Known about the structure:
Chain A is built from two helices and four strands, in the order E-H-E-E-H-E. Chain A is of the alpha+beta class. Chain B has helices at 2-14, 17-44, 50-91, 99-134, 143-166, 170-192. The radius of gyration of chain B is 20 Å and the shape is elongated. Chain B starts with a helix and ends with a helix. Classes of the chains: A alpha+beta, B mainly alpha.
Amino acid sequence: MIFVKRLVLDVLKPHQPNALDFAQAIATAGGNYRVRVAVLEVDEKTETLEVVVEGDTIDFEAVQSGISDLGGSLHSIDEVEVQSEPRSG
Amino acid sequence: MKLLDQIRFLLRITRTRDIIRRYFVVNGFDGALTMLGLVIGFLFSGTTEVSVIINVCLGAAIALGMSGISSAYVSEAAERKRALGKLEEAMITDLSDSAHGAAARGVPLLIALVNGSAPLALSLLILSPLLIAEAGLALPVSPLYAAVAIAFLLIFLLGVFLGRIADVSWLRSGIQTLLVAVITATLIYLIAGR
Lengths: 89, 194
């Protein structure tokens, strides 16, 4: 079994909802996520974010769905940290 | 509670909270002033049956409500659709399934509801003495005079509400809107009351 522990995502989103709403929405996608959002670039109607998600078992699909539900668009996965569980027996 | 949170969220992301407030005041003011004009008109006309006055005023109130709903919906739906289109252009993606898509569909409905219900609700409040009298309950004053007093009070309160939004003296703002009602009543007296 492989667990995703950390993701660094490049996301484009409209100005609204703001970074706080965005981080909260991603955090609620999982049980015990720690989310850090940094605004890297601001354009007339959009913002580019670096989203860092940390957790014990990150559900990538749920995170992606949380992003698109708020109007964001996932551009790339810039960093990934996964951990495998030692096989028993 | 969840629905209220959702509504607040949609209003926040579309930045339409102030638009709703503006629609409420503008159309509420329209409704209150129209009812004031009608009631004063009936007062100057002499004896008219209360049921006739109620029917005329209710007809006007319903028309104001329907006009408020339809006009706000048509214009706001177009505005939201345009805003969504521009955002989709900037994002280079379809946002119809996102919160922005939901807002583009739901916010015009909400604004329309507020725009239509404001004049209807204020009109019904102004007509309440007439409805009470029609139901057979005795009032200490003539229902028409009571309706005029309620209209003045509601118009004053709308001014107070505006004053609080603008963070200026609520009394001054209330008196300003009250003055509009007094000028309206005077004009009706000068033109129709003679």
